[in-house]
Amino acid sequence: DNAPLSSLGILFNTGAGQHILKNPLVVNSIIDKAALRRTDVILEVGPGTGNLTVKMLEKVKKVIACEIDPRLVGELQKRVQGTCLANKLEIKVGDILKTDLPFFDACVANLPYQISSPFVFKLLLHRPFFRCAILMFQREFALRLVAKPGSKLYCRLSINTQLLARVDHLMKVGKNNFRPPPKVESSVVRIEPKNPPPPINFQEWDGLVRIAFVRKNKTLSAAFK
Q1: Does 179 score more than 90 pLDDT?
Q2: What are the Ribosomal RNA adenine methylase transferase N-terminal domain coordinates in residue numbering (predicted)?
């Protein structure tokens, strides 16, 4: 599956969070959990060399793959060139945080971990609504997303995400499922936006939560004075 890469001598930029998911069992598991439909348009962020992309193309109407690294885009294009999958793949080259998101039914992403938080909120505030997102995160970030009130990990991220969406931890993914292996363990999370959303101004709400969590050990009354 990954043979062509080593022979091409592509060196991964781990500083940009490039860790390619190589284990086909994990790839298949993510695809199962995404419950893809034949009519779906999928937004994939960080397709890398396309291990997940190619499998999804076989099952859906279209995959819009967003990739920041032109070398990997070349790999992905080569991989589908001349096959019946080529016309189902649209590639956008660039930074997903600076890109207007297209219309999509579901999102699948193996993100650079440093953009996890801004990307989650970009997704949750995106309209029209999408059905679900299956996202790979650093384990600790994933646990904060699903943390319950009273837990040590419960934070602004937990409150805001759970206000706007239903969040489930689906599975743990060990470092050795990636090439090169990242320094941290990973987890896959499913996010389903609440539709209709809660009837509040999110920016104002977030301002309130930010104050509440600014100093963990202060009482709320002290923070709001």
Answers
A1: no
A2: 26-195
